[in-house]
Amino acid sequence: MPYFHSNGADLYYESTGSGPPLMFLHPPAMGAAAFYTQREELSDQFQVITFDARGHGKSGDGGRNDLLIAEWAEDMAALADHLGVNQIIPCGYSSGANPALEFAISYPERTAGLILISGYPEVSTNILDKQIKIGIWGMKKDLRGMLAKWLAVSHTGNKRHQRFIEKTAKASNPVLLKNLYANSLYYQCTEQLPKIKCPVAAIYGANDYYIHYYQYLFYKYVRNIQLIHIQDIAHQIPTKKPKELHGIIRSFVAQHHLSSIT
Predict the structure, then answer these.
(1) 29-66 residue pLDDT tens
(2) Helix-helix angle 126-140:174-186, to 10 degrees
(3) CA angle, 16 as apex, 57 and 76 as ends, to 5°?
(4) What are phi and psi of 98, to 5 degrees?
(5) What is the C-alpha to C-alpha distance for residues 186 and 215, in angstroms, rounded to an integer?
């Protein structure tokens, strides 16, 4: 199995296909298993890069029970170095948008474009605040089995894909997950969004009402941005609306002439 080393931990990754490098970032507990369909269907045109964040799935935790968003972005840079990739297009899903945003802010010269899927730059609405606090509570009780089942069933009806998600969540470090949920709760990069100069696509489910507020923050602070809604879906776009998502990604890369980046 392929691993790279970063900040004292050996992290599991997968890289398939060739072309512009898309690096997908997952929400807590889901790991690279979240992007099974993307690896299968986008590798005809792209280098699709996924990895289990430290303490998740097959990745080690480096002897630590914490993962800061800035450290996650450093791990992204280490993986790009390991693969010999100069620039990437981070694709962050849900709170996986946090490390994607942090990377774009901290490594602008290495960010060719940025794709945010159901993402947000801060937590400033009650419903999202409560959802993340439920995650913190669940990891305090070490309810990984329950979380693993809920993530799998809520994201896909594909039994094989469900098994991948469940296995990753159950293998993750519960204390690190609790702390990552907390770090995601308090992460805030809104004031730094104007630093992002690369083209950005912010993609939301048309029915994802509890997260729609955050699109206005991106629209206000990010200059070169496209806001895109996918119909008949709430939050789980990568698993439930992959065809529409992949069409948007292909169009975004073509529109901004990103096909030659390596």
Answers:
(1) 999 999 999 999 999 999 999 999 999 999 999 999 99
(2) 160
(3) 55
(4) -60, -55
(5) 18
Strand ranges inside the chain, DSSP E: 3-6, 9-16, 21-25, 47-51, 89-93, 114-117, 200-205, 225-230
CA pair distance 53, 68, nearest whole angstrom: 11
Residues 194-231 have pLDDT tens digits of 999 999 999 999 999 999 999 999 999 999 999 999 99
pTM over 0.70: yes
Confidence of residue 78 (pLDDT cuts 50, 70, 90): very high
Which candidate, 85, 73, 75, places its Cα nearest to that of 15?
85
User: 93: helix, coil or strand?
Assistant: strand
Per residue in 250-262, pLDDT (tens digit) is 999 999 999 888 7
Q: How far is CA 79 from CA 75, 98, 201, in A?
A: 6, 17, 23
Q: For residue range 101-121, list pLDDT tens digits in order.
A: 999 999 999 999 999 999 999
Helices H, strands E: what count in the chain? 10, 8
Q: What distances in angstroms separate CA 163 from CA 30, 166, 251, one per listed residue?
A: 11, 5, 31
Stated length of the chain: 262
Q: The tokens of 251 are what? A: 């169009």
9: region left, alpha or beta (phi > 0 left; psi from -120 to 50 alpha): beta
- The span from the CA of 211 to the CA of 213, in Å, is 6
Residues 6+ apart with CB under 8 A from 35: 24, 26, 48, 50, 93, 238
